What we know:
By secondary structure, the chain is an alpha/beta fold. Helix content is 46%, strand content 18%.
Amino acid sequence: MTTEVLIIMRCFNDEWVVGDTLEAIHQQAGPRFRVVAIDSGSTDRSVDIIRSFPVQLIELPPGTYIPGRVLNLGMEQGDEPYGVFVNSDCTPQHPEWLESLIEPLHRDPTVAAVYGRQVARPEATPLVVKDYERAFGDGSIAATWPHFFSMASSAIRRSVWHDSPFDPEIRYSEDVYWTWQRRREGWNIAYAAQSVAMHSHNYTLAETRRRFAGEGRADAVIYPREMLPSSWLRGVLGSWAAEVTRDWAWCLEHRHPLAAAAAPAIRWAQRSSYWQGLSEALRETTGA
């Protein structure tokens, strides 16, 4: 019996969790699968841990990681009809994670990609927990947004990828870019709320600024101009005030006064950095 799913795991310096993730993957019930692990120059024990599992390991030289190229490289390692992507720090939480993740691809031939539910880790800060509940959960909130996707726990249809590989140059939001393009072609993107993995990051303010600036630059490339914030007042101040208001309501309900106090600075770092990256990229595009 041939394998049905090619699981592609990306790893970099995740010795603290990669073993747990691979253990959870190999406990999956249902579809037959094999695993390709792509390590991007880890300097800890990640590679040694990966080698202790029955997986195909690809080691990339340090400093050569570009998301789209790595995703394409993973898909090129087989011909299974479905490709599943999982980050090495995104740990499946039950034996039906894989089966639930690919179920929409089985059921609906118009679905090009699926993303699974992510829950925050126990050490996550309250605002991170709140953000993950809002972005994932039952999917009702994200369904009202113009577009959302997360590659950290996801599945795609090989035939769609074969015709439209990942962009080999984009360095942020490669998952959003690919799925948005497929939606424009008429494909559907699904959410598998029953496929649960644990994944979150407590970013420092410097890391937050860098990440959101990168996302702003990527959005300038991904979306048409009319979908992007049209002014600083709307793109920074308005979205900052709305998010802080939601933070305060959530922190009051869950009794997190320190998180409520930290929210304005954290959200300002996010929104102002996003606007900076977006504005810079738009100026480069228009030559203004």
